[in-house]
Target: Carbohydrate kinase PfkB domain-containing protein
Amino acid sequence: MLLSASRGFGALLCRRYSKQHPHVVVHPEIRQALFEKQPIVALESTIITHGMPVPQNVETALKVEQEVRQHRAIPATIGILDGRIKVGLTQEELLRLAHKPREQLIKCSRRDLPYVVAARQSGGTTVAATMIVAHQVGIRIFATGGIGGVHREGHVTMDVSADLVELGRTPVAVVCSGVKSILDIPRTLEYLETQGVCVASYQSEGGVFPDFYTRDSGCKVPCNLESAADVAKLLRSWQELNLRSGVLIGVPIPEEFAAEKSDIAAAIEVANEEAQTHGISGKEVTPFMLSHIASVTKGRSLQANIALIKNNAAVAAQIACALAAGSV
Ligand code: PSU
Ligand code: MN
Model:
């Protein structure tokens, strides 16, 4: 009786979503979890469509979901299939997305959503787009590898990721390992400050922001948190303050998977030159750099990338659990 009543509420919630967000389809498991205030972790899909090669993209996406479940939270991978924005891709849908010819897949950030939906296209959602959708359905925690940032020379080219602006205007907590050092980390942190984003590091020696493949960017952040319970405490204050902006939690890559700083720096130099030679610009820059760094480091950067995403998913799940436990 109780169960069917709560299923009924789940269906009610579903009708509400479909009225307010007619292009968003929420998986029944996620709908139920939202209704029951269970811990949920949103996951992005640009990592699958543009961030990693086949087959590591699918393997990683599935492992990351597993990691969330092992830490007693529910994963909700968000992506777009034939113009439908899916929250909680099924395994079949995830495989369908991952195996589409890449030229048919669009990297969708905020500005891309209207035409991708209108033209019934498919694609991966960036951090910005994933935050938007997560917030629309009521998911507060989101895990990924790295966010976009201010590109090197970004102060001249104006290449500043829409992820940073989104963090300034959408109340979702993003757990990541910072931004890749293909970007300008100090300027990225400056920009986040301008946008009013609460930035914290997690279990970081010296309270420094991580550097994606390595643990220390050398940039101090205002606050370091030592446990999932401490993050949940911060997030509770953030919710009570109702600032409407996001939170960024920077988790350093586990020591045993960290790359050599010089190895990465050299690969970035090569990839940068290649990007300039090929005239790569706009949204193509990040995927181009990622694949070149992976090939110059003979896959070592990819292995580090996979390890840190899994770790971030585990941390995010623990945070989601701590937050849910406090709100019952
Ligand atoms: N950083 C990574 N891997 C990625 C991305 C960033 O290490 O796959 C993706 C994320 O989806 C991020 C997006 O939101 O790239 C940022 O792209 P842009 O810089 O074009 O905003
Ligand atoms: Mn850009």
